[in-house]
Design a protein that fits this description.
The longest helix has about 35 residues. The protein has 13 helices and no strands. By secondary structure, it is mostly helical.
């Protein structure tokens, strides 16, 4: 009994330490965003600003086109999420319902593809987009985001599809519904929570993405929010810390809000894919 209690206390202590480790950067970011320049240069930093100010936010909007960059990020992330889900949903249905060798190989490829580093694929992607004349365009960036989001979207949706009872589809087939009609009228409504969670996860991934946007977008009017945040760092590597923290805080809020909404659905989808036969 004592061993069990000790182990449980150890687990909670480890979980608390992990939460503190994750929360520290964000809490420090929020604190920095509201500090005055004089306090930022202090040799004795504090967690809570002594004299909170909004000047960093005003300066951030004055120095960089944050609204335009946020609009570009919103457009690219939204388009990528919608397109990825539209492609992944029927593919996930086929992979979940028809467990052939080809479907198993495709599932394995989905998992393996997640291990590819970005540096490995950026040069081929750049050459392909250059031939398609999609360099420095949001359309080209959306295409890259869709390709990058598809494997994880498939993996999530396959778990949701397997959680849907096949009896419902068999009943629809007895009534004369074809595969497409069954998918649209019977399976898709039951997949709605999974589709929403997958779309929002793809949106978050694209919203926060930096590397592809940095390489593929050249002009300032096309750049996304993560790329514009780097403009607060000078040529010599000196960061304008206050405005940078304020802009980064605003850029982080959508991801935090969306993830707080969908985290239970994401966990449910992963567990469904893990326990269904």
């Amino acid at each position: 009994m004592r061993t069990s209690t000790t182990g449980r206390v150890g687990q909670y202590a480890a979980l608390l330490a992990y939460l503190v480790f994750l929360a520290f950067p964000f809490l420090w970011l929020v604190s920095t965003a509201f500090k005055s320049p004089r306090e930022l240069g202090s040799l004795h930093p504090t967690w809570i600003p002594r004299d909170p100010t909004l000047d960093n936010f005003r300066q951030a909007f004055d120095e960089q086109p944050l609204l335009r960059a946020a609009g570009n990020s919103l457009l690219a992330a939204s388009a990528a999420a919608v397109i990825a889900v539209l492609i992944a949903t029927p593919l996930a249905y086929v992979m979940a319902r028809h467990r052939t060798r080809l479907a198993k190989a495709a599932t394995g490829w989905v998992v393996v593809s997640q291990a590819f580093p970005l540096v490995l694929v950026i040069i081929p992607l750049f050459l392909v987009l250059k031939n398609l004349r999609l360099i420095n365009s949001l359309a080209g960036l959306v295409l890259v985001y869709v390709v990058w989001a598809l494997p994880f979207a498939l993996w999530m949706l396959v778990g949701y599809v397997r959680a849907v009872p096949t009896d419902l589809e068999e009943a629809a087939a007895v009534d004369g519904a074809g595969r497409l009609r069954t998918l649209v009228s019977v399976t898709a409504p039951l997949l709605a929570p999974g589709i929403v969670a997958t779309a929002l996860f793809a949106f978050i991934t694209a919203w926060n993405e930096f590397f592809f946007a940095l390489v593929l977008l050249k002009t300032s009017d096309k750049q996304t929010l993560p790329v514009v945040l780097t403009h607060f760092i000078g040529a010599e590597g000196v960061a304008d810390l206050g405005p940078l923290a304020a802009a980064a805080f605003l850029a982080t809020l959508p991801s935090l809000i969306i993830f707080a909404i969908i985290q239970r659905r994401i966990t449910g989808g992963m567990l469904a894919g893990a326990v269904k036969s």
